[in-house]
Amino acid sequence: MQEHSVTVAKKTYRLDEPFFVLATQNPIEMEGTYPLPEAQLDRFMFKVSVPFPSSDDLVEILTRTTGNAAPQTDKIADGPMIQRMSHLARQMPIASHVSDYVARLVVGTHPDHPTAPPLVKQFVRYGSSPRGAQAIILGAKVVAVMAGRYNVAFEDIAAVAPAALRHRLLLNFEGQAEGISPDGIVGELLKSVPKQGEEKKA
Fold first, then answer.
1. Which sign does the torsion angle of CA 112, 2, 101, 36 carry?
2. How many CB atoms lie within 10 A of CB 136?
3. How far is it, in rounded angstroms, from Cα 188 to Cα 3?
4. Is 79 among the domain residues?
5. Do the Cβ atoms of 34 and 23 come closer than 8 Å?
6. pLDDT single digits (tens) 36-82
7. What's the CA gap between 87 and 89, in Å, rounded?
8. What's the rounded Cα separation, in Å, for the pair 16 and 32?
């Protein structure tokens, strides 16, 4: 994934941009599934939680997939357009104090760091890598662009932090036994890590 290439019969082929990988995660007890190593999970920008569909959504799924009509799709973007959109998002400015907040969020996921909240110290075995901070900032820039704003705000960070960090936090045995969720850890970090100006109030 990181090399944006594929090797077949000892020959390597570069893959066209834009290149990205989507993967689905099934329950561990299903036959033929196996857990990905942490280093591999870390290469995914986001882990998006998809709940079981509601009754209405399930009816819509059945209607679309069990009939005789061929599925229809409308093209709304091509590769070059997606690359231009990506380039635009990367140009979105982010203030240094917002970047500092992201850094403190990610550092706070490490149980051996003095700023880690009690929940992290008690239940987390390993925290996020620097890729987690990169994913938060890049995702927040996209959220800001879609909202029509001209800079990244703290609310953009909060919007993407769970998806960027939930697969990068490794719980210890106690955390797993207690049923602690990575989303709960991230939520606690978002509440406990002060933003600029809040340090003086504390």
1. negative
2. 30
3. 35
4. no
5. no
6. 788 888 999 999 988 889 999 999 999 988 988 887 888 999 999 99
7. 5
8. 30
Q: Residue 32's domain is classified under what CATH number?
A: 1.10.8.80
Rounded Cα distance between 110 and 125, Å, is: 8
Task: Mark residue 63 as left, alpha or beta (left: phi above 0; alpha: psi -120 to 50; beta: remaining).
Answer: alpha
Instruction: Tell if the pTM clears 0.90, that is, is over it.
Output: no
Q: What is the pLDDT of residue 119?
A: 94
Q: Write 92-95 long-range contacts (CB < 8 A, 24+).
A: 92/141, 92/144, 92/145, 92/150, 92/151, 92/152, 93/150, 93/151, 93/152, 94/137, 94/140, 94/141, 94/151, 94/152, 95/151, 95/152
Q: Which residues pair with 7 in a beta bridge?
A: 12
Give 196's contacts (C-beta < 8 A, 6+ positions apart): 97, 98, 100, 101
Residue 72 lies in a domain: no
Structure tokens at 78: 């091509």
On whether residue 87 sits in a domain, the answer given is: no
Domain that holds residue 173: 5-63+94-201
Please count the structural domains in the chain: 1
Q: Answer whether residue 80 is part of any domain.
A: no
For residues 192 and 198, give the distance between their C-alpha atoms in angstroms, rounded to a whole number. 10
The Cα–Cα gap between 57 and 64 comes to 11
Mean pLDDT of the chain: 90
The pLDDT tens digits for 22-43 are 888 776 666 667 777 888 889 9
What contacts 191, CB < 8 A, 6 or more positions away?
A: none
